[in-house]
Amino acid sequence: MKRLLLPLIAALLFLFVSPSFASKIPADAWQTGTLVSSEESWHSRVAGANGMVVGREYPIVHYVIDTPQYTYEANLALKHQRAKRPALTVNGPIRFAFVKSDLYIQDENGKEIKVKLTKKTLKQGN
Q1: Distances (CA, A) of 107 to 11, 42, 115
Q2: Which of 4, 31, 113, 124 keeps 20 to 30 A from 106, CA to CA?
Q3: CA torsion angle for 22, 27, 33, 34 (degrees, to 10)?
Q4: pLDDT for 86-105, tens place per residue?
């Protein structure tokens, strides 16, 4: 009986506790800036073992976000060739947030996307 009860309890705890561990971004963490640039470049990765070599190409989207005090540059590596880019408009507003050392952007549909911050530039005269 104990053998059956422990996995059941573990499964129930996982179902009810795991959503609380999800990275929720506080509403007051969101900032607004202007998406200055959104450019895509293609990269390839080759891996091999036992004489087999497999290559794949994937896109990386480079974003430039402008605020009154800083300019941020970030990359989003898409996992597949056919992966859709987030719905964003260049020269339009963009919402972004920092949570610890992670940068998130929000697309025009409200979807939160984690991106990699590559550069933060302080504007002169601030």
Answers
A1: 34, 22, 12
A2: 124
A3: 70
A4: 999 999 999 999 998 899 99
Three-class DSSP category at 38: strand
Residue 114 CA neighbour count, 13 Å, CB half: 8
Residue 68's SS3 state is coil
Instruction: For the beta carbon of residue 42, count every other beta carbon within 10 angstroms.
Output: 9
Cα–Cα dist 101/34, whole Å:
21
Residues 46-61, buried b or exposed e (16+ Cβ, 10 A)?
eeeeeeeeeeeeebeb
Question: What phi and psi, each to the nearest 5 degrees, are found at residue 100?
Answer: 55, -115
Mean pLDDT of the chain, nearest integer: 83
